[in-house]
C-alpha cells in the first residue's frame, strides 16, 4: 500500500464510536491513530482531526489536507505550526438537522416557559402561566451559514417571525435579513437571539453587555432570551451572567461556553431561567464524517476541487 494514502485520525470523540466507525472506513488506505505516540506519522497525507495533539504537525510533516471533525474549525486554526494546506469543514445533513432540532427545541422551551413549569413541578404547584404565540415573537439568528439557514427555515415553520444577520446579506423567502452594518436594526427587532456564528477574531466576545442591551425589551415574553450553540468564545460570560441577573435578559439556553467543560462554580449552572447542555447541540456522526472525508480524498486524488474549504483569512 502506498504511504501516500495514509490517513491520520486524531479525534477527541468517544473512543468506542471512532473505533466502530473506523472498522469499515477508508478502504484501501492505511489508517494511523495519533493517540499512539510510537506510531510513525511521517508519511501521512491526510489528517481527520478534532482538538488534535499539539505535536501533530511535527510528527506528520507531509500532510496535504486537514479534515475537521466538526463544522467549526477554530480548534484547528489556533494550532501552533499549522501548515499552509487546505482545511475542510464537516458539512453533513445529520449535523445540520440535529442543530436545527436543538435550536427549535430551545426557542419553544422559552416560548412555552419550560424552565418556569419545571420549577413549579418541583414545588408541586398547579398554576397555568400566560402564554404568547410563536407568531408574536421575533427570533433573530446571527450566522446564516449551513446551520443558520436550516434553523431559520425550521423556526419559521413553527410560526415564529424570523430575522437573520450575517456578514454578507442573504435573500431568504419570508425572512428579513440584515448584513453586518444592520446589526442595531436586527437586534432592535429580536426577542429571542440565536447565536450560530463561528469563532473568529471578528466574532470573539461579540455577545457582550452592549449587544444584550440593544435587544428588544418589552416583547411578548417581556424580556429577551439568548440562545447560543456557535462557540463559547463569542460570549462574554461575565456580561451574560450580569444581564441575566439584572433583568436585561429573561433567560438563556447555552450549549457552548468560554471554558468547556463549564466550571462547577459557574453561576450559570444554578440559574432557574438558564438551560445548559454540554456542547451537545449537534454531535458529529463519525461514520458520516469518515464517509465525507473519504469522498473528498477521492475528489482530491482525481484532481477535482475540494468542497467546504475554510477561508484562512476570514477564519471560517
Ligand atoms: P458556516 O461557515 O456555514 O456559516 C457561518 C455564518 O456566520 C455565515 O453566515 C457567515 O456570514 C456568518 N459570519 C461569520 N463571521 C461573521 C461576522 N464577523 N459577522 C457576521 N456574520 C458572520 O458555519 P456553520 O453554519 O456550518 O456553523 C456555524 C458554527 O456553529 C460553527 O463554526 C461552529 O462553531 C458551531 N457549531 C456548533 C455545534 C455544537 O454542537 N454546538 C455543532 C456544529 C457547529 P456569511 O454568510 O456572510 O459568510
Ligand atoms: C462542531 C461542533 O463544530 O461540534 O461541529 O462544535
Question: Could you walk me through the main structural features you see in this protein, from its secondary elements to its overall organization?
Answer:
With 316 residues, the protein is an alpha/beta fold. Helices cover 29% and strands 15% of the residues. It has ten helices and twelve strands. The protein has a seven-stranded parallel sheet, sandwiched between helices. The chain has a five-stranded parallel sheet with strand order 2-1-3-4-5, covered by helices on one side. Helix 1 (15-22) links the parallel strand 1 and strand 2 (31-33). Helix 4 (93-111) crosses helix 6 (146-157). The longest helix has 19 residues, at 93-111. It is elongated. The structure holds NADPH dihydro-nicotinamide-adenine-dinucleotide phosphate and oxalic acid (OXD). Oxalic acid is lined by residues 70-72, 284.
Oligomer: single chain
Radius of gyration: 21 Å
**Can you list the ligands bound to this structure?**
NADPH dihydro-nicotinamide-adenine-dinucleotide phosphate, oxalic acid
**How is the main sheet built?**
7 strands, parallel
Q: State the end-to-end distance.
A: 34 Å
Number of strands: 12
Helix content: 25-40%
**Lateral strand order in the biggest sheet:** 8-7-6-9-10-11-12
Put simply, the count of helices is: 10
